[in-house]
Amino acid sequence: MSARKVRVDLFYDIISPYAWINFEAWLRYSKKWPVDLHLRPFYLPGIFQKTGNIPPISIPEKNDYLNKDLQRLNEYWGTELVWHKDFRAQTLARSSIYAQRFLAAVQLYEPDKLIPASRAFWKRGWVEKESVYEEGDVRKISHDLKLKCEKRILGSLKSDEVKNLIIDNTNEALATKAFGTPWQVLTMEDGKKEAFFGCDRMHLVAQTLKQPYYGPLKELAKEI
């Protein structure tokens, strides 16, 4: 009899490049570890508002370090994020709410597209260095994804159902003491929850799960 899988709730906001790295890491490791991965788009500014936390980019002195950090992470994970110098001004002045609502709507109406939809926002924002914050940006991404339920998804972005899903995901993360993204919550076989913050905790997750840590698993990138 196979062991019961550990549930993993991955709470993320596409405004964070670190969330993309962690997203890809979990997609790879979900093929190796006995886990049941649940993708949970939430609203990062809501987390900051409740906790009083501030985004790292709000501190100008961190800019150079974050740039170098992403280069190192790209090399390790095989990702291709590009730091852009106006990111600080853009993210502090804009909101990811339309993007996150879109992902919530995809989760509701066309869940098999949630992975490519999430990647599309990150790629547009962190590879192509284009805006992902406006309704027009969301519509462009939606069109490119060729969604079967595109009309329904776009028409639901201001609906209570979609708004409430984002609120529920955010509140559930807050209930586990979330303060940023990526935020990962493991529900162990005994019901105990173990939370991890950041894209550089996979070796500690492995330790908690009593599973091997396989490194970046770049060979799986093209299979997911």
Chain-wise SSE layout:
Elements: E1 6-12, H1 17-29, E2 35-41, H2 44-51, H3 63-77, H4 87-93, H5 97-109, H6 114-126, H7 135-145, H8 150-155, H9 160-175, E3 183-187, E4 193-197, H10 202-209
Parallel strand pairs: 1-2
Antiparallel strand pairs: 1-3, 3-4
Pfam families: DSBA (PF01323)
Domain DSBA-like thioredoxin: 8-209
Keywords: Transferase
Describe this structure in words.
This protein has 224 residues and is an alpha+beta fold. The protein has a single domain (6-223), classed as 3-Layer(aba) Sandwich (Glutaredoxin), CATH 3.40.30. Helices cover 49% and strands 11% of the residues. It has helices spanning 17-29, 44-51, 63-77, 87-93, 97-109, 114-126, 135-145, 150-155, 160-175, 202-209, and strands at 6-12, 35-41, 183-187, 193-197. The protein has a four-stranded mixed β-sheet with strand order 2-1-3-4, with helices on both faces. Strand 3 and strand 4 form a beta hairpin. Helix 5 runs antiparallel to helix 6 and helix 6 packs across helix 7 (135-145). The longest helix is centred in the C-terminal third of the chain and has 16 residues, at 160-175. It is an enzyme of class 2 (transferase). GO terms for molecular function: glutathione peroxidase activity; glutathione transferase activity. Keywords: Transferase.
